[in-house]
Amino acid sequence: MKNIKTYLLGMLTVICMLSSCDKGFDELNVNRVDPTTLDAQFIMNRAIIEATYPDNFATLQMLTYNFGIVQQIITPFGSSLSGGNYNIFNPGNTTPVWTNFYRNVLKQTVDAVQKTKDDNNRTNLYNEARIWKAYAFMILTDTYGDIPYTEAAQGFISGTIQPKYDKQELIYKDILKELDEATAALDASKPTSSGDILYGGDIIKWKRFGNSLLLRAAMRLTKVAPDVAKTYVAKAVAGGLMQSNSDNAALRHTSLFNNWIAVHLTAREKANFYLAQPFVDYLKNNNDPRLRSIAYRHVGAKSGAEQAAPRTTSDPALQIGMPMGYDDVSIKNTFATYGVASLYDYSQVNLNTILKVTSPEYHVTYSQTQLLLAEAVVRGWATGDANQLFQSGIRAHMQQMAEYDASAAISEPAIQTYLTANPLNMSTAYEQINTQYWVASFMNGPELFANFRRSGYPALTKNPYPGSEITGDFIRRLPYPDSEIITNSANLNAAIAVQGKNDLNTRVWWDK
Amino acid sequence: MYLQGRIAQDMYTRGQDYNIPNGYAPIPAAPTGFINGSYTQDVRRFRERNYDFLLGANRKINDFGVDLTLGGNQMYRRMEYNSVSVTDFVQRGLYTILNGRIKDPLYSKTERKVNSLYGAVEFSYKSLLFLNVTGRNDWFSTLAPANRSILYPSVTGSFIFSDAINKLPNWLSYGKLRAAYAEVGDDNVAPYSNVLYYSVNNNLFPNPSGQLIPVGGINASQIPNADLRPLRVSEAEFGIELKLFNSKIGLDVSYYRKITNDQILAAQVSDASSFTNQLINVGRSMNKGLEMLFTVSPVKTTSFRWDVSANVSYNTSEVLQLGLNPADTVISVGGGGGRFVKQVVGKPIGALYTFLYRRDDQGRQVFDANSGRPLRNNFDSYVGNVLPKYFGGITNTFNYKGLVLTTLIDFKLGAKMIAGSNMNALRHGLHKRTLVGRAEGYVIGDGVNPDGKANTTKSDIQPFYETPNVLGVNEDFVFNSGFWKLRQITLGYDFTKYMKNVKFVKGLKLSAVANNVLILKKWTENMDPENIANISDNETGLDFWTAVPPTRSIGVNLNIKF
């Protein structure tokens, strides 16, 4: 009997130890390494960095579609590099805007908004995050049209995993409202933080950025809702726009946080992307000093390996843009015409200036803002001297070249010569302004694609590639990612029913 | 009566280091003054401790026996991971972390515990009839406190009827019936899946005045779930074991039916939610099948013996319910490039989907009128199941006076896969199919245009063959993933009998072994169906990048016992 008692007692002790009385059992499932929250400023910083694609392959979206559609940079190669070069649907490259902005930028931005919305000491950070959120959604809706907006980026907050799609008209109205309200609510007398990587907590600069972005969003609606556009242009101008290049919203990449387009073009895709003929010819024919800053060519190169130092030249007279409409086989037929040794002999983006791995990437610039304002003046929506704004916009972009590299800097006399030769002619004002906007937005993929569709300028000719899939002259929109067919098909199909076919032809609301 | 206590520890430390060498072309050049490349040094430290006790008692009263055991176990498992990666070097050719320009450290630590209590009672009668009843309760540290306890029972009975019944025919040497019902619980989830975690970037980013600022954010692409329950498997099994004709023929057949409830899966969610996956307990699935082992000795003489042993399994499954509400009928668990594995209600586990070429009502393939390239459907389609219905092996053993020849043939049948290595060959013009049109330099696809007229558009040959990969149309490469293989041949001889006079040697056996001898039958084009790079369960049946091929090996085995 005594034995049994001892056993039972021993067993009870062990049972107790093993089950509910096991101290530390609850605490065991707590990660001691990673934090469960962070300062909203640092989260916002990540959102800002991630808006410039911190990833090799994601940059292919810009390289293959945006830059190709607006005929600035083109590749003759197909398969994983196909897109705007052949005017065909390549789901691998139409997707990265969606994945990067929803999964990375908005995940962090919405969290920063959430963490600051009820904090009276962080109203400035809260409103900065709202501006960034509006910016991210703008890029998404400009690219795809109707998108998840009101229910989006809520996977953790509300558990919504299949967000419904909203109409672009509704989205744009809300973006305008958000930009207007958030920018107006920024207050230099309230606490701010130098921990902000975009402007170091300078609220005046944030306000100018917010208003300049508001101007951009308003001008997007010139075709479809001029009255709304006009109203918000007035608000943006009244609120105060960017005053100089020092107000530019840019990510100044470092040797630790690289410019990934540059990383991709200096490495894996080094010999695959070229400056397109329409872009090179436009700069060349107008004696644009920016050509020397942007382009170089490896004269006589017959292979990627031969694209090396002794052949390299930035001499504008020697630049030859790759003609549109060829693949890597048919491009051979152009060599004699243009006097190149091989496809590797065409001009490329200069990897020592614009595309160093530490080169900045610009989101909204003073130059773009001046040009948009010039157009608003021509439309009679703002007061000012359109020619002066036009020239100021060009000057700002030429001066911006020095920020890439000292060797890309353009001297004041050169700027002056160009401006004197290229005044704004009121009868061709829209074309001139928006063609300059096209140059001034070089390397800013989403903005290039959007403003080209909105304004119709520059006056490009259709990419003549014989195997084009599109029905019109240009790609008007990128299709939704295949992952939505798999994960959110009911909402996707509802959106397609409203907006139109999920292809490269359907125009987004503001592009009707 | 006895009491037993045990403490066991299992641990390992594994260090690894690897580099991308200086001068490798697909990585960018290093800044001036540095040499490109990268180097990683990492260490994994694993420890598992088990504490258990067992209390047992048995009693025999006449023909009846009772055997009682009670026990408990605590399993504690810890994994730590340390790594430092560096990018670009100061000194050429010196692969060390101290020589690196950008340094990225990483550290993680996970811990989990499972506490268990169990008991078992076995009743026996005359060594003929057995009944075994068990109960077990587990507590999982990885699951929510309210859900983490699970109690599950089992009952097993067996009856050796050949011994119990006297008037059985002579040819029946042995016969046993068995029946079992068992439940099992488990937590198939990583620790810390209940909370959203953040991370701080390794490097600081300068603000406009050059001050270095921290950067951080949400670290997860998976929506955490604080309410996960353990999964529960309930299985019923019936079996019969027979030995016939003096044990020359043996047969063991069992039928099982298994229901899995609350399997924890990472279901793919819309990217617009900001996440890629959500952890959920996904309803119910069923597996059932037959397992059979057949042995026969067709020839048995004093100098020669031939034994055959064959095992065959047949398994079917069905997803019965998914998600939290009846409307959830599909979840995607893995894939890309137009190749997906999904769980679909009403279909077997592991449904394979891909995009198909667009076809008109008459089944004619549709080509774009302008480009001449194939078009695809706007939706993906079901093309089969990735898990085999049948698998098994046949072993033949021939023994002639101690010289033993053994062959093993094995097979897997009744599943589909996307043999995507072919897609890589196709898009690069290396596949035999790309010969069509090569002489002409163009292809005219056999079919119609969207308006129904016959397709006459010449497509450039290269983009034509790149199109299926670009569009994720994998239907050309959906193959039966089954195979019959001659897996192994062994020829051996036991020399022990000649070693009686040799001191120290207790046994000596020499054999020649050949592995992966021959593929007897396969259906996949240009590849071994087992030669796949994806080893994740969620990507079964999805092949794309070429893997290192399995090798045939031939060797000699000398086995000496001292």
Commentary on this structure:
- The complex is a heterodimer of chains A (512) and B (562).
- By secondary structure, chain A is mainly α.
- Chain A has helices at residues 2-18, 25-28, 40-50, 59-69, 91-94, 96-116, 123-144, 168-185, 203-219, 226-239, 260-266, 277-285, 290-294, 335-338, 366-378, 386-404, 412-421, 429-440, 445-455, 482-487, 489-499; strands at 73-74, 147-148, 165-166, 249-251, 274-275, 295-298, 312-313, 348-349, 361-364.
- Chain A has 21 helices and nine strands.
- The N and C termini of chain A lie far apart (93 Å).
- Chain A folds into two domains: 95-241 and 484-512, Serine Threonine Protein Phosphatase 5, Tetratricopeptide repeat (Alpha Horseshoe), CATH 1.25.40.390; 244-465 and 473-478, Serine Threonine Protein Phosphatase 5, Tetratricopeptide repeat.
- With 562 residues, chain B is mainly beta.
- Chain B has three domains: 1-123, no CATH class; 126-201 and 216-261 and 285-318, no CATH class; 330-562, no CATH class.
- Chain B has three helices and 32 strands.
- Chain B has helices spanning 161-164, 421-427, 461-471, and strands at residues 2-20, 35-61, 64-89, 100-125, 129-140, 149-159, 172-186, 198-200, 205-206, 212-213, 216-218, 222-223, 231-244, 249-261, 264-268, 277-281, 284-300, 304-321, 330-336, 339-344, 351-357, 376-385, 390-400, 403-413, 416-419, 442-443, 459-460, 478-480, 483-494, 507-522, 542-543, 553-561.
- In chain B, the strands form seven sheets. In chain B, strands 1-2-3-4-5-6-7-13-14-17-18-23-24-29-30-32 form a 16-stranded antiparallel sheet.
- Classes of the chains: A mainly alpha (512), B mainly beta (562).
- Chains A and B meet through helix 1, helix 2, helix 3, helix 6 and strand 2 of A and strand 3, strand 4, strand 8, strand 9 and strand 11 of B.
